[in-house]
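<derive_structure_tokens>
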Amino acid sequence: MRELDVVVVGAGQAGLSAAYHLSRAGLRPDREFVVLDHAPRPGGAWQFRWPSLTYGKVHGMHALPGMELTGADGSRPSSEVIGAYFDAYERRFALRVHRPVEVSAVREGEGGRLLVETSEGRYAARALINATGTWDRPFWPRYPGQETFRGRQVHTADYPGPEAFAGLRVVVVGGGASGTQHLMEIAEVASETYWVTRRPPVFREGPFGEIQGRAAVAMVEERVRRGLPPQSVVSVTGLPLNDAVRRAREQGVLDRLRMFERIVPEGVVWSDGRTVEADVILWATGFRAAVDHLAPLKLREPGGGIRVEDTRAVRDPRIHLVGYGPSASTIGANRAGRAAVRAVKGLLDGVAA
């Protein structure tokens, strides 16, 4: 078992930001802190994105602290562009990320330390910065008859790109950014598409500036402060009404249907008896925070979430969550990484004193 000051779990945007600021604060990688990442290579969750999501389609990728992302080819897959950028970033700042490493549990250790159990052994840490994001916990809603469906069911997490749906009848479930992107590109090759959402989608016209951004983040942050599961920022910002979306609406691709009642072997059925036959149901239904490894610490509130103030878990000040709730955007992750390190450094200095 290795003893050190800080364990960072996750090497996406938030984790790398935290690692950068830890290094700037004087802590040495692999000596005073370590970064553990379960992914096979650099790139965070971006490395798993579908090939048709090119860098030019990415909404608001913010550079990591200390190193800009310049000259990126907008026609290349975002997984390649951002993966290469994260790789260069890790090497430039010698962050020495350990991968692939699975973190199975974080428990109370001895002497006030946290016991971090991983696939490469155990760590005893004075603080932990959790940056595990959501990609590893795709949310699959459950509907009656779901197991009887004879076609394929696919989640955004396993979306292969539009070519796999050529000539098929596809039901896309979900009113977020991923759902609309999937639907618009699938509609060009599928024989039929249907768009189903629980709530009517809200399209946002006009610029989305700093004031609107702060208001959206504040709404997500309020849920986290109350110990409720975080919502994504995009769930409160609405969908941007760009030229591609306007064309899709004019063509009838984005004609939304309310949620069906049940699933049958040949398709889906609504409460009024309407039936749509389908070959594929694509669940663009989002993700949940990947924090199960923190369960032994009993951080969850009755509302189902972890109550967080700034980045600190209210039930345990040694735990900081970055890229969680209001800091799930790329710029928010950067700021959260810096804030978490400032708080952790204060905690370490206080313990040392």
